[in-house]
Design goal:
Blueprint (H helix, E strand, L loop, with lengths): L15 H19 L3 E5 L4 H14 L3 E7 L7 H12 L3 E6 L1 H8 L5 H22 L3 E5 L4 H8 L18 E3 L7 H10 L4 H4 L19 H20 L8 E5 L5 E5 L2 E14 L7 E2 L4 H14 L3 E6 L13
Parallel strand pairs: 1-2, 1-4, 2-3, 4-5, 8-10
Antiparallel strand pairs: 6-8, 7-8, 8-9
The protein binds xanthosine-5'-monophosphate.
Length: 327
Amino acid sequence: MPILTRPETMERITNKALAEAFIAEQIADIRAQVGDKKVLLALSGGVDSSVVAALLIKAIGKQLVCVHVNHGLLRKGEPEQVIRVFKDEMDANLVYVDAVDRFLDKLAGVADPETKRKIIGGEFIEVFAEEARKLDGIEFLAQGTIWPDILESEHGIKAHHNAGGLPDDLDFELVEPVRILFKDEVRVVGEALGLPHGMVYRQPFPGPGLGVRCLGAITRDRLEAVRESDAILREEFAKAGLEGKVWQYFTAIPDFKSVGIKDGKRCDEWPCILRAVNTVDAMSATVEPVPFELLSHITERITNEVKGVNRVLFDLTPKPTGTIEWE
Ligand code: XMP
């Protein structure tokens, strides 16, 4: 049986040799637990699920079925990266589900942030459950649960998303190979497994994705503006050497317009809000002092390249009083 509790004496995994020892141990445990049965995994492309996927592919190859649900709220290039890394490079058994229309149709006209979150979470479970029912002979469900998830649920800080609230007819045994690891250890293990550095060290990204950054009721055109502006911000931060240094940075687009001028003509378009913050635990945060020249360059690119945006604003608010996300 896999170890379910982190031993107090466990050495922190900080280097390749320790990571490799952990990987070897997990591979043996996974094989012992699963035998020749099939395992299902919801692969979002986030650090934890990606590391679990890579571990399981090493341990049991095609007995793992990864399901990647594209809900339309992912960042630019993310679904493509999941397919490239796992299907093309690691030869994984990957089911790609294009659920974009389904999610956006359900979200149409819904402005309340918590209702949006509930719809996204609920729909995700439904889509995943439907895919699971299409597959034969699955007995296990793999999850990227990590040690802080267990600690936080024990202390009542957050409800552990264990088994993702799947319906009762989908009664799988759990496989949680990174359960006893802290986040920094998951990243070291991910690199040792050969996952791309950018995937393993990427900034936190909320489950509801760009859905909580397309403020108010989501529309496809404004969602595209969030996605494109976010891609420009990330590209420029990477070029300026800020990637991996700033804890979280993103754009948000509110659902109001203001007047501006483009090509000598009056235009009513959206503003784009930039946010860049540093924190240790996300409970409080400070604003990254982004150089003014970089902000000006990003503004020029976003107002020129992103359809429907004529202004860029930089959010100067620490947490508190502002939360990190706008909704
Ligand atoms: P706030 O906005 O509460 O964000 O200061 C703190 C951290 O949590 C992330 N966040 C979420 N993550 N589902 C998630 O998985 C959510 O609904 C959600 N809302 C906020 C946020 O990106 C930040 O890192």
